[in-house]
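W.,

You were right to be curious about this one. When I first looked at the sequence I had no strong expectations either way, so I just let the prediction run and decided to look at it fresh. Below is the sequence, 609 residues in total, followed by the output.
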Amino acid sequence: MLERSFYQQVRLELGIQTTVNSIHPWDVVTTTTHTRPRVVPSGTSALTVFDELERMMVVLGAPGSGKTTMLLELLRDALIIAEKDIDEPIPVMLNLTSWTQRRGPIDEWIVHEVSVRYQIPPRHVRAWLDVDLLLPVLDGLDEVGSSYRQPCIQAINEFHRRYTTTSIAVGCRHLDYEALDDKLELHGIAQIQPLSAHQVDDFLVHAGPAGESAKSILIKHPELNDFTSSPLMLSVLILAIQPGNRLTEQPVGVDEGDATRIFRAFVITMLKRRPSPSHAAKDVITSLCFLANNLRRISQTQFTIDLIDNAWLPRSTWKPGRRASLISLIIGFILLGAVGYTSSGFVGAIAGAITATSFALPALEKLGTWDFQYEIRKRDADPAWLSLKAIDWTFPPFGVLEGLSKHPKVIPVAAILGIVAGATFGTPKGWLSAVFCGATVFILASISAWLIYDYGFNFSKLPPREGRSEVPSPRVRAALQVSIMVAPLIGLVAGTLAWLVLTLLLDTDDGKLALLIGLSVTTYAFICLGCHAFFEQLSIRRTLHRAELFPFPAKPVLDYATRCLFLHKVGDGYIFAHQSLLDFFDALHTKGPAKYRTVESLFDEQPGR
């Protein structure tokens, strides 16, 4: 992140020699509860400032002033020390926007975030936190929704009271912080200062011809000098006000907003500098607007393919869950119908087909047997249920009832299976056999459902499997691989139990019903644990692509946006190069029939477009 920070990337774009280990160019003023404001000597590292403030610091500054960069410098230097000394705390940088999804104690949120992001068991993270071996670096307090910002402050203060010796750093925009009634109870504040005229001139001189051109334009348009006080806006401004750009041919429009107009010019400039024969500029902007709006909606800063779900679709589109359920129905018809016909002729085929219909009932939105697929993405999901935990292989006395109480919608499915089995295989031997056969299948189906939901889900919490394909995404790919291993085991357990019970009590040893039960459970488990999610994800992506909202595949477009400095690639995900860029693209997003009408105005700036 620090290596590819927007400030560093723009310096490279302008031909300015730079290194990731260089100290930030801005000045810092520190304040503590016991001292007056003090100007930090130029060239002082972020870690030194952090130590001087007793390792409990709030970093404040204007938008684009360098708050995140300073926190990243702190993170980098603290990581170097932690690698050399096992007794030093492990620094970890987290964005507070995700806290709004949980809104609980900060320590629980930290444990959850670290365990999920790095696949570390929560008990280890909790142990590190309890003995001061974690250094939370929390960025984006200003990105927390305004209605949740005050509770977030209170949660951080409560965390500080409980963990009085734990080092912590928090970043926030200055004006947003000053507007809060309550303040953070940390020892010191590091206030990033605006760039001085000397620092701006030095930057322009080192920028070469582009800097000289920008300097002359700034002299002609003094109203633009207000945007040279932050590294971000200075960098954007230099790229945006090059000769020939219509931004400089007329005064900046006050109705639209000066910053918005500068960002518009910057986007156009970068698209001109790096034209792509494969991706139309208009489509790229539309995709970024859609992406920014949805990231804002779910309070996330980093995008991964796994974030896309039904909520990203327009309301008018047909739900992909229904389409995936119908595909599941076809799979069930083919497999179970064929096996039923092989084992019991036409009657068995009918029984298999009827059983398969239970797979498609969620398409009618009456049962929703795949509700658990979305629990991982729910904003208010139970932290204990979502956490990484060891699988309890003991079979509790009332485990089945407990499992069914969590997922009562599987009971109608189990009842359908029991009725079909009793009517098909038990009726020829009398009504008592039919009742017993149906009850046996109902119980076995319930046990299988419990195994699928409770045991299978813990397996599916394995780390995402790396790969270049977008569908299935890394997490769905992991679920598919797990389902291939787990589904046959669950089916084998169900089929074996059915064969033992029915052989002893129905005096039959042909195993036809047991085979049908085993294959039914295997198919159902495979569909629930991964297959349904795969078809649904494919349907969602194709729907978004046809609606011209988000491309499929998306990585080539996102990589192109990265080359244009709009995004950064982080691991297997992407983030906007700066929060201000995310805000800009989100502001362009409009809803309703005139979707992306504001996007069209971007191209009004370009002659001939």
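Here's what jumped out at me. The chain has a mean pLDDT of 76. And, maybe more interesting for your project: The longest strand covers residues 56-61.

Coffee later to discuss?

I.
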